[in-house]
Automatic annotation (TrEMBL):
GO cellular component, one term: cytoplasm
Name listed for the protein in its UniProt record: Probable RNA helicase armi
SUPFAM superfamilies in alphabetical order: P-loop containing nucleoside triphosphate hydrolases
Lineage summary: Eukaryota, Metazoa, Ecdysozoa, Arthropoda, Hexapoda
Positions of the DNA2/NAM7 helicase helicase domain: 82-158
Annotated organism of origin: Drosophila pseudoobscura pseudoobscura
Compartment(s): Cytoplasm
Name of the coding gene: LOC6900184
Length: 198
């Protein structure tokens, strides 16, 4: 039986941290089964919540034998320079879209990642959405995009980028195509729950 390897992506660190906290609280996975990938700058700026430190790691994206191949573990249990073998052993990897795009040079074996769950996809530009999707298995890969395309739109600073359509999220573009079209929700409980929150 093939074991699923799942990527969970978000457009921001706040959302990725919240997802990590919810996974910890659910106790559905043990510490060694999931990991939250963070940028080095979050460590320098001390922006990682203390309760998440033991679940966080930075990536070692250097080519083999061009840098020290030893993962370091800090006093707070943060893992630094996490290599492909260590990262790939986790069933679930959480991070921002951009951070999850960084493992591409790590050359995971074909078909390693089977699923991508992306939250708040309405806020993400199409290229950002595609970065973690590029890591999926070509045969078995599944993408689940969640979010509200009518809530927050992607932030695009370039007028040229806006003119090229980058102000429209991939989620909104897909929902507006004829092949997918409007998707009535298949889970009425989600609709009633979201309506109750508004």
């Amino acid at each position: 039986m093939v074991q699923n390897r799942i990527l969970v992506a978000a457009p921001s660190n706040i959302v990725a941290d919240l997802i990590t906290k919810l996974i910890i609280a659910s106790k559905a996975l043990t510490t060694g089964e999931f990991i939250r990938i963070v940028r080095q700058s979050l460590i320098k700026e001390e922006l990682i919540p203390p309760e998440l430190m033991t679940h966080c790691a930075t990536l070692d994206i250097c080519a083999k034998e061009t840098a020290e191949d030893t993962m370091l573990i800090t006093k707070s249990c943060l893992k630094l320079r996490c290599q492909r073998e260590i990262l790939g052993a986790h069933r679930l990897i959480i991070g921002t879209c951009a951070t999850l795009g960084n493992p591409m040079p790590m050359s995971f074996p074909g078909g390693h990642f089977t699923h991508l769950f992306m939250d708040e996809t309405g806020q993400s530009t199409e290229p950002k959405t595609l970065m973690p999707a590029a890591l999926l298995s070509k045969d078995r890969g599944r993408v689940i995009l969640a979010g509200d395309p009518h809530q927050l739109q992607p932030v695009v600073h370039s007028s040229y980028g806006r003119a090229c359509g980058f102000g429209t999220s991939m989620l909104e573009r897909l929902l507006n195509t004829r092949t997918i079209g409007p998707c009535p929700r298949s889970w009425p409980h989600v609709v009633s729950c979201s309506m109750a929150m508004n």
